[in-house]
Amino acid sequence: MKKKIFYGWFIVAASFIIMTFGWGIVFNTSSLFIEPISETLNISRKTMNFTFTLRALSQLLISLLSVVIFKRFKMINVMKVCSIILGISFFLHSYIQSPIMMYLLNTISTVTVILISVLPLSAILNNWFHVKRGLVVGISFMGSGIGGLVFNPITGYIIVNFGWRSAYQFLSIVMFIVIVPITFFVLKTRPRDIGEYPLGSSQEIEKAAEDSNEELPGITLAQAMKTPRFWGISIASVLLSIVGISLMLNISPHLTNIGYSVTFAANIVALTMGSLAIGKMILGHLFDKLGLRTATSIAIGFLVIGTLGMLYATNYIALFAVVAGTGLGTAFYTIANPIITTKVYGSKDYSSIYGFLTAVIGVGGIISPMIVGVLYDNSGSYYSSYKLMLILGIAVLLMYQFVFPKKKNQYD
Q1: Residue 129 in 3-state DSSP?
Q2: What's the Cα-to-Cα distance from 10 to each of 14, 136, 176, 177, 200, rounded to whole Å?
Q3: Residue 188: strand, helix, or coil
Q4: Residues 226, 230, 236, 242: is their CA dihedral positive or negative?
Q5: Could you read off the pLDDT of 342-373 as tens digits, one per residue?
Q6: CB-based contacts of 49: which residues, under 8 Å, 6+ apart?
Q7: Measuring CA to CA, which residue among 137, 197, 164 is closest to residue 35?
Q8: What is the DSSP letter of 95?
Q9: Measuring CA to CA, how many Å separate 250 from each of 157, 196, 368?
Q10: Contact call for residues 327 and 302 (beta carbons, < 8 A)
């Protein structure tokens, strides 16, 4: 008798597609629209760039509010509604006539894409897999990098030949016809919804847990917030997000500032997207095989290498370090937090703790442009920023080793 394919793998595939067509389009193609929109509406780059600040604020707030949203409403129902709103709001971007309209639609698309992607998907994957969690999160979330790699050249072509309004319309239609059916017909929040059991568990184990009314292992967010470790991890996450975001967002302007062509800089950015996609899968596997401390050290070590590469980017060889460093290094944000949440705090209050740690990354997203902007204005280059990020990266590497528990499942 042919063995039935575990449905959890369809959940992984669905998550990958949502990250590709959702996060990959909304976030990873946004920089292509800055110049054409600013020229069409005759608005400054500063006005355009404020959308990134709004995006970071929106991400921070919705990550915190998601705890309340997912407790009050069924997660899958929230995803269904948001998948529809996302497609419509992104289509309406093609009718932007003013900065206010742009800010409003940007906020809506940011909130809705987050509520169908990293926040719920990490919880759903956690429900379906009791083993290989790092690998499946890595495979699923690498979709965002693949989306950036695939849709950047497509979007660029459409903008050049048909205009930015047509690009928004095309992307929104593709997004809608792919994501909506998946959220409605493929995604299942828990294995028991279709009579299955998590990978790494069994019918006997699950039934025994139900019969004994045992609580999930771990602690609540309120309990975690009373421990020094929780705030140590949170501070380290803020600093690390500042380092990574500063590295990624300024690759293209830094390379053009030091003499490379715009086309060459764009190609390097595309390579970093591909490297990021592969890095997510590799890092997830490393978390499974090597554990929290070792995998974290490797990831942050690569981030430091990537930052160092930017300081010596006039040498072509250093650009290999940049591409490799962004791959494993910046993959840490999306891959590590689900693993940290489960391994350090357990599954008892997974959504609340993961939502908080995700919000913390948003804090880094707000602070990073401010630091880089001030240092650039004072020095006229990005070198001072990368020197500071190098120091912060090394400091964070040491911090994580200090705050992570030495034993597994140490909920204190």
Answers
A1: strand
A2: 6, 11, 19, 18, 16
A3: coil
A4: negative
A5: 888 888 888 889 889 888 888 888 888 888 88
A6: 34, 369
A7: 164
A8: G
A9: 23, 46, 11
A10: yes
Which residue ranges form the domains of the chain, and what is each CATH number?
8-198 (1.20.1250.20), 221-403 (1.20.1250.20)
Give the separation between CA 153 and CA 148, rounded to whole angstroms: 9
Q: Which two tokens stand for residue 92?
A: 């309406």
DSSP 3-state assignment of 6?
coil
Whether 302 contacts 324, CB under 8 Å: yes
DSSP secondary structure letter of residue 7: T
> Who's near 324: CB < 8 A, 6+ residues apart?
275, 302, 305, 306
Give the three-class secondary structure for 218: strand
Task: Kindly report, residue by residue over 14-47, the tens digit of the pLDDT.
Answer: 999 999 999 999 988 887 887 788 889 998 767 8
User: Which amino acid is residue 10, in one-letter code?
Assistant: F
Which of 235, 368, 386, 371 lies closest to 305, judged by CA?
386
pTM, two decimals, is 0.83
Answer yes or no: are the C-beta atoms of 171 and 90 closer than 8 Å: yes
CA distances from 191 to 9, 188, 389, 403 (A): 12, 7, 43, 34
